[in-house]
Amino acid sequence: METIELKINGRKRTLHCLPNATLVEVLRDQLHLTGTHVGCDTTQCGACTIHVDGCAVKACTVLAVRSDGSDVMTIEGLAENEASHPMQEAFKACHGLQCGFCTPGMIMSAVDLVNKGCALEPSAIREALSGNICRCTGYQNIVAAVMQGASEMQEQSS
Amino acid sequence: MSGSLIGKRVLRKEDHRFVSGKGRYTDDIQLVGVTYAAFVRSPYARADIKSFDVSEALAAPGVIAVLTGEEVVKDGLGGLPCGWMIHSKDGSEMRQPHHPVLAADRVNYLGEPVALVIAETQLEAKNAAEMVMVDFEPLTAVVNPATASQAETLYEAVPNNVCYEWELGDEAATDAGLAAAAHITTLQLTNNRLIPNAIEPRAALAEYNSGTDEIILHTTSQNPHLVRLIMTAFVQIAPEHKLRVIAPDVGGGFGSKIFIYSEETALAWAAKKLGLTIKWTAERSESFLTDAHGRDHVSEAQLALSAEGEFLALKVKTIANMGAYLSTFASAVPTYLYGTLLAGQYRTPAIYVEVDSVFTNTAPVDAYRGAGRPEATYLVERIVEKAAAEMGLDPAELRRRNFIGRDQFPYQTPVALEYDTGDYEASLSKALEMADYDTFATRQAEAASRGKLRGIGLSCYIEACGLAPSQVAGALGAGVGLWESGEVRVNPTGSVTVLTGSHSHGQGHETTFAQLVADRLGLPIEDVEVVHGDTGKLDFGLGTYGSRSLAVGGSALSVAADKVVEKGRKIAAHLLRTDVDNIDFDAPVFKMLDSNESKTFQEIAFAAYVNHDYPSDELEPGLAEKAFYDPLNFTYPAGTHICEVEIDPDTGVVEVVQFVAVDDFGTIINPMIVEGQVHGGLAQGIGQALLEQAVYDDTGQLITGSYMDYCMPRADNFPDFKVGMTCTPCTHNPVGAKGCGEAGAIGSPPAVMNAITHALGGIEVDMPATSEKVWRAVQTMRTLKTA
Prior knowledge:
The structure holds two protein chains of two kinds. Chain A is an alpha+beta fold. Chain A has helices at 23-30, 86-93, 103-115, 122-128, 140-157; strands at residues 2-8, 11-17, 49-52, 55-58, 71-73. Chain A has two domains: 2-77, Beta-grasp domain (Ubiquitin-like (UB roll), Roll), CATH 3.10.20; 86-157, DNA polymerase, domain 1, CATH 1.10.150.120. Chain A has five helices and five strands. In chain A, strands 2-1-5-3-4 form a five-stranded mixed beta sheet, with helices on both faces. The longest helix of chain A has 18 residues, at 140-157. Chain B is an alpha+beta fold. Chain B has 19 helices and 28 strands. In chain B, the strands form seven sheets. Chain B has a seven-stranded mixed beta sheet with strand order 3-5-1-12-9-10-11. Chain B has a five-stranded mixed beta sheet with strand order 7-15-14-13-8, with helices on both faces. In chain B, β26 (638-647) and β27 (654-664) form a beta hairpin. In chain B, α17 (671-690) crosses α18 (743-759).
């Protein structure tokens, strides 16, 4: 067992895990943060996307020990003070989800692309989201949600 | 207030938990003392099992037990049944090989489970599964459906690997139509094999309580009651009242989670046998190998036309691949969900179809979004478009000449179905307008100036949804009636709990069904909660597939809500000391017709539970009503899809530059949700046309076993879809709804492929139209031009 220290959704945690445990296993199985999902075994689907030190990463492909000392944010930590994050609200408002399984990863990727200054037009958003697979929506309403969520994020920060 | 919620874009009640990470999918459920299972699977497509040696696995760290196919035999478990009996044209019953929960002596497809290992952790279970020694003796595999009937026989009881040889329609009349034709268009095509790929992998969590002898099985199912029925009545792992099946939040299904699989069955059996709580979640690679695949037809067809372009006859011969075993509904897909749809939107007077279903050493094939109807639509709409090109007719005009007119309903087709209503001209006209069809030549010329080949393709689809009138389904071989149940349970304070046998795994039932009931009762939608997916909470349900939820499940709720109103009128009459005939329900108020006195819905609800002066011979306390709704006919959603593509002749890359879908789903409760269903269906249909294909090699190894190899549609594969609606309400259900879940996947593949064929000047490629295939077709086109 290895001991690691993480800041998870704003709270410091000391955890013990196997050296081969992935970050998503630690989040789901030890911390019961089950909003981060696992949809594949080849780092292709993006359902497990979270933020580590402010950047979107696929948590199925990061060893937990490699994240020692990192600041981790999952879908559960995105909303501040119980109010939903603008991107979460936009996904609801634009019907940007159906079964909901890919949604947490999709939202974390969406917030990341806005933070990274992705051009907020459909073709750029589609390309930026091509690492997240959704089998339900056909992506159209997701793109609309990201446009809306992005503009609300920018309004809030200005 | 009634009517105020129908047709409104109400935001979904279920979304808050999904966007905040609070969804509760099977793998999210954490139980104290849980153990983990891993399956040992066949590495061969076909092999004899000579022996099992589990000693090393049993000695591995954390391992609790190893169960093999031999224990399944010892415990006398039944096989996994197929629920639909098909008869061959000679009257004989379809042939159904035994489908074991775990194979004991022979494996018949790659990934077939032969044993499961149960250990304290998932890692320990997976490690030990690799230590189970199975002595396989590989045998030659039969993989290609087109030649399977001439290959080595796989099962003694299934001569020539043929499940059934089915026919529908009038062969003599069809041949006569062909003989009288001025023009005959012929077409050979393959409907490519697909892997459903719901993003939540299948999972199960089985919990056994030895104190009550009850098993609780959480599983990723579209129809938990059917899971319980099959596990208890057929596999016989427990009595029905001792098995509770819960399908909690389910992350997409598209058909693949209808079926009863080995894994969850083995888990429920093992949990009881060992007195454990056991969890299993598929890795994606297991999903690729063992989720029931879809489509996989090889067909040839002839369409006979008069000189004026009138359809005279359609003759079709199809070989359908069933895979290694008959999955739960597999036999019905290439027959009653396929042959019956070959009339399309047209008056074709004579149709004859033969379907040979064959077994191969591949994963079982069953219903996948559309299930039979995409295969029928693909064939009909490809051959109609080809006929138009051959006869020099505009493809829209040829269709118009053959449409069933709006004044010709109800319309009896020559392939068993009676369409109740429709207006095919309306959806075609609207789609042509939205697609700027008339100005296509301008866009084509502009594309040519950029060196691109631009093409346009149409598809006028019809589907039969709302499975199904039970009598009809029974007459066609269904093992169960296909009605649906619903309950409207009014709580004493006037809020309402709605229970439905339909299951939502993305479709938004918690909102649509709440809209339906809240509208009928005149309540705020917040006061209506929808409960589904738990055999412990509702009596029975047939589940969600075939776009049946609203048309059948919603109709059950509509009837149940009407019963609540009737009971409410009786209570109101009692409270107001008048006759029930003197009470009118003007939602949400029960009013006396001959006075100003009235009772609110809340007052009636409260009185129903707290009153103590009911005349017990006339009025029972309580206000909860059930309905079991059996539809009178199928529903017939229909519409027109138009696709425009641009092909880069140097690379063969196909870009969908415009896609228009105009659909007639009858009455729509929530347009936002319906449009979302269309978008999703289109992505899967266009995915089939351009990207997706399950490929096995000659030995039955799956070449496309991961997202690195199986090309899933991604956000940058599509333009924004243009979606429109027309409406002819269903004539025979109380909601007027037809179903919208599958239309996108049914209508779109032929529209895309017709557009590609158009761009390629008539040169045909099979789906998926990968850049390699299209590039080769471009070379052929250039050779023909210069020759």
